[in-house]
């Protein structure tokens, strides 16, 4: 247990301590405030600050860390914003950046990446033991500085122990993650015993890909490759890749976190991921308990908790393993699949997870049209808890999996296959005069529910029923032209400002409704009458006195 003494609680004799240092233990260890105080071996005394940083940039802060050495504390004044164009870098163990007085509200100082810079990591703390980021706000400024590939907004971890990120706001990363604890690649010196707690994370990333580069715009909230780490009591709102991604990390506990997707960032792939083969696919002792995962309104989470090598979009040959515990998590709102397990070895305990608050049916907020047949069947049945028994084998203990799980009889990989449902198409669509002009190079006049109308390169206008993916021509104007131009752009259907619906080719009108001066609206429908020109008092008939497909076909010849 670590106890912090604020400066004002110290005897006056300590006031001379204006140096900006945290003093771990040392000569003050035996000091006691009274009989009720529970003093432990690792008491840290934070001396009184005579000043805090109110202006400057990354150079100001980096100079203090470089000159101060180990345990230097850089305190930012409440309410200040420090613009940066390069990372803030911890240079020795035990260094800390925090807001003076450790506020937990909007007065926490803000580190803000500047537009025009090429920095993606605001703070680099990797490979320094016991460094701390406390009670500040770190803003990657993605809306203004833009998306940029690179390291995470907070880049921590490496071969270290005891790092802390706490009571900090981390949002708008430009790159692939808001907070990353990177592994060390060293078996004898892994990233270990970090604390990531009470942070407010997100939004992180966006849905979809960058049109210029094709790179995914999505980003994680917390990406943790660090063993025996506590990831607790964080709120992650608007991550778009994984809310919390556990990369192996034996012994890590992920408890009481709140993960919510938001419509402003779009579709979120995963709530908590245990899918990657990092750390040799070793998840021994990982505990994921009492987290709340919510698919927010007007958005959804594809996979609440994904467990195993066969669950994500990149199934891998290594089987994830280890006795892990996934208990008492609560899933609510729009979640496609709450827990899917396939590709695990080692004795799972998956119990007490609640899905009663998940929106049903799943098809009301997502589409499984891009999924395999097994996933489509589970989705259609709104199955929230599924596992493939042959892909979940126990070697170091029995599996205990709550009875609400559906056991799949067929192996299925890649459950990250849901998409936003297409908005429902209308049964009719209407146009006012001068709002419709479509040529045969564009072709599509309207898309209706299971129906569409197109202008073809031969001048023909056709209405097609597409129910079940089978195209059936329901009506055609059957007036052809050889004067549509090589790209079809000379043949076009227009509802003119005079209320006349006219089909033109390069030489002039092919046919018309002859409703000029009377037509106020043209209506396309998926049922007969397929096309109607309406007047102010109702249907306006053309020269043949018949509206819709009947008239169009009778114009033939
Ligand atoms: C002192 O701290 C220890 C370790 O956290 C704890 O077990 C014990 O209950 C505490 N005692 C009191 C009096 O708070
Ligand atoms: C998995 O990680 C645990 C914890 O570090 C370790 O004790 C165990 O040996 C590892 N298992 C394998 C097969 O590497
Ligand atoms: C399930 O399918 C994947 C991908 O084809 C395969 O790697 C895996 O071994 C299969 N699982 C079982 C238990 O057969």
From TrEMBL:
It comes from Sordaria brevicollis. This is Bulb-type lectin domain-containing protein. InterPro entries: Bulb-type_lectin_dom, Bulb-type_lectin_dom_sf, PbH1, Pectin_lyas_fold, Pectin_lyase_fold/virulence. PROSITE patterns: BULB_LECTIN (PS50927). Residues 427-557 form the Bulb-type lectin domain. Keywords: Signal. Residues 1-22 form the signal peptide.
